[in-house]
Design goal:
With 433 residues, the protein is α/β, with parallel strands linked by helices. It has 18 helices and 11 strands. It folds into 2 domains: 12-153 and 323-374, 3-Layer(aba) Sandwich (D-Maltodextrin-Binding Protein, domain 2), CATH 3.40.190; 154-320 and 395-432, Periplasmic binding protein-like II (D-Maltodextrin-Binding Protein, domain 2). The strands form 2 sheets. Strands 1, 2, 3, 6, 7, 8, 9, 10 and 11 form a 9-stranded mixed β-sheet that branches. The relative contact order is 0.20. This is Sugar ABC transporter substrate-binding protein. Residues 1-26 form the signal peptide. InterPro entries: Bact_solute-bd_prot1, SBP.
Length: 433
């Protein structure tokens, strides 16, 4: 479930790790002392699965761990994703952060590490972290493991096969020219081409970031994340591409006030219920739609395709935008916390997460075989074969810089600012951090 875009999410010192490719091979209070007494420990746990099935699945995982470790109990606070993103930074400024909390890695995690509240789990995880492959490096800061991923993500287009057919579209678009043509066909058939949840800002960022990945060389992208310098004109070109696309009016009416995942009128709900033909979103979209869909057969009507390439552009074809979800432990949580995260990373639990639609693409490659939905298999295959997965910019960058970039892109969607202004906002935020 979205599981997961975090804003805040994101130390240039970490940027090398955060830019590593991801590959498939590869309710209660917040007591930071973990309530240890008489050999018993109660771990407070904040996660973002506030809806079923995820809420119940995480509870059952905690219950199963407790049965095998009777001295460890849990006090769980499921919290809606956008609210959780606000709660975590505040909690880390307090004396009582939760023992376990949602973690998206990258520069956001590096920013959190500066609070001194995150547990360094390097030694505690050294015997098994390699089972997760290259992806675990994205939850490191200065080479130390401060978070453990339980799933991976890649962003692409979810689309309604029935609405594409209705508009006379026989194949998903491979280039931006194809996509623009398909938008026109959908409009001609009186179908809203695209849904977007601009109220939450981060869905807007996906668009600009993908245009940047198409217009900029991979070396340029990597050096920008590492050195915090956005000097190449390809970034201005990305903004120009975005402006041109927005100018075709592809999105639903009043998209600036639409949330991404909350309610049937959210962008996810619009696609789930056939009110829009497609949405640029993460692989989590499939389970996110479960409580939003009136048509419970919606999954059979969905397809997926990667962000189209731009003919003749400098970007490496197939480079994708992604990330993942995980958990961190607070310093005072004690050894039970990393041990519990080891349990979550096990093939058995990862398989359960996939089978219950609590996770879509598992972080443990041994659980990939649990994916049965044909569309998710398509997504997993793309994740496995993509030449590079760039972590979401706002997550890869220091928190203040990522927030400033998201704000500038959101303002751009609202008709304010310029392509150059997005780059200027980034540069100003770097100077002010």
């Amino acid at each position: 479930m979205h599981v997961h875009m975090s804003i805040p999410r994101r130390c240039a010192a970490l940027a090398v790790a955060t830019a590593l490719a991801l590959t498939a091979t590869a309710c209660g209070g917040n007591d930071s002392s973990s309530n240890s007494s008489g050999g018993k420990t109660t771990l407070t746990w904040w996660h973002n699965a506030d809806q079923q099935p995820g809420r119940g699945v995480w509870q059952s995982i905690a219950d199963d761990y407790h049965k095998a470790h009777t001295n460890v109990s849990f006090k769980i606070s499921p919290t809606q994703n956008e609210s959780l993103k606000t709660k975590i930074p505040i909690a880390l400024q307090s004396s009582d952060p939760p023992n376990i909390f949602q973690q998206w890695g990258g520069g956001a995690e590096a920013t959190q590490v500066q609070s001194g509240k995150l547990m360094d789990m390097t030694d505690a995880t050294s015997s098994w972290i390699k089972d997760l492959g290259n992806s675990a490096a994205l939850w490191q800061a200065d080479g130390k493991q401060y978070g453990i991923p339980y799933d991976l993500h890649v962003v692409g287009f979810w689309y309604r096969k029935d609405l594409f057919t209705q508009a006379g579209i026989t194949n998903p678009p491979a280039t931006m020219d194809d996509l623009n043509s398909d938008v026109a066909k959908l409009k001609a058939a009186h179908i809203t081409p695209m849904a977007i949840g601009s109220k939450d800002k981060w869905p807007d960022a996906f668009w600009w970031e993908y245009f940047a990945l198409r217009e900029c060389s991979l070396d340029t992208i990597k050096s920008t994340i590492k050195d915090l310098k956005m000097t190449d004109q390809c970034y201005v070109k990305a903004g120009q591409d975005l402006k041109t696309f927005i100018g075709t009016s592809p999105f639903q009416n009043a998209f600036l006030g639409t949330p991404a995942q909350q309610g049937a009128g959210s962008s996810a709900g619009l696609v789930a219920n056939g009110k829009a033909a497609m949405e640029l979103q993460g692989d989590w979209e499939l389970p996110t739609m479960i409580p939003l869909a009136t048509d419970k057969q919606y999954a059979t009507k969905l397809g997926w395709f990667p962000f189209p390439n731009i003919t003749g552009s400098p970007g490496t074809p197939g480079v994708a935008l992604g990330g993942g979800d995980g958990f961190s432990c607070s310093v005072k949580a004690g050894p039970a916390c990393p041990d519990f995260l080891k349990y979550i990373s096990s093939t058995e639990v990862q398989t359960k997460l996939v089978q219950t639609n609590t996770a879509t693409l598992p972080s443990n490659p041994a659980a990939v075989s649990a994916i049965t939905d044909p569309t998710l298999k398509t997504v997993q295959n793309y994740l496995s074969s993509a030449p590079y997965i760039q972590m979401y910019f706002d997550q890869a960058l220091p928190t203040s810089v990522g927030n400033a970039l998201n704000d500038a892109i959101a303002n751009f969607f609202a008709g304010q600012g310029t392509p150059e202004g997005i780059v200027q906002a980034f540069t100003k935020a770097v100077a002010n951090q």
